Input
Amino acid sequence: MVEMYLGIIRFSDKPSSTTNSLSTKGWIRKFFQNKALRRFVTLDCNFPCYRPRPKRRFFVRLGFLGIIVLLRIIAIALYATSDHLGNRPSLLAKYCAFILICVFLTFLLDLYHYCVWWHYTPYLDTTCCCCRSRKHRRYMSYILTAAYLKGDKWDNRSCSQNPCAKRTLEHVATFHYSSFKPQKCWSDLPESDQTSNLGKKSETSSTYIGFHQTTPKAAVSIVKSEFLPSKSGMLGPGTYFARSLDGTEYKIGRDGGYGAWFIAKIEMGKVYLIEKDLINNGKGKTSRYDAVTHQFVSNGDWRTEFDTCYCIHRDENLDEFCVKDPATQIRKWIVVVTENFDPKVKCYGLDTEFDSTVCDFI
Output
């Protein structure tokens, strides 16, 4: 109930029979808590296609606000130059100018929304973006990956193209599941696709997409500096990558830890191909095992002549390769920290932002 004492409005907790138990304070609170209603009032949308595309959402909003600003400027000019109705045009011009301030504040909110979604920073990384490696493109929140896409309409679904010609790192992470292999086995690529371009800035077909999994703490450390080659491994010293995220679960993740994964573009350079059966001296050893080849590979002797060692498994899902010099061969990467290691997504409400959508778009 609203009570008036000496010109001061006070909201009472007691219901009034004349207001049908309607609380003004409660109505205002419910209004601000209703996300769909807030989006409707601010002419914002929550199309499902925006969920995996926060960048598109920002530019659509930017264009919409730009149109509003243009119309307001035209209105101010018309009101300011009008000689009719006395001082009223001047007041209307000032009102429009005030609206421009509101539009600017709305733009700042949209910019903040865009930065939170598209330039996301996980809970563990508290450093400034200027302290990160130039190869680091971005962190992506796990909520943007294909495993969390919901529905099959409005482009809120995984990519159905097979093979997929799009090889941007963001597309691979957002629209393809963990079993997806962006490119064929290195030995199955045409010779023209294996042409070395090492040391050049342009990206040719010799660039390969690799997956690497490690702990979130190690991932943050890499982002701040660079991949450090391991001192030993099945293929010798170097940095190891798999052809898919699932491929890291069987080998790289087992030794290096879980919780964060990289998708990187790598310049393969000159590649040494080896079959797993030739160097497998453990479980599953076959008659094709060659001790000399095994020693050549495991000691890293291939590094004197080659830039990358690619190991072909009988199951192509397990193929892996070792990069000799990650500082020069790795061009760029994106990083995803998994749900169990990044509480910031739920803290910011990114996992529930689209749950309040009404009519598929509000």
Q: What stands out?
A: The longest strand covers residues 207-214. Residues 88-118 form the longest helix (31 residues).
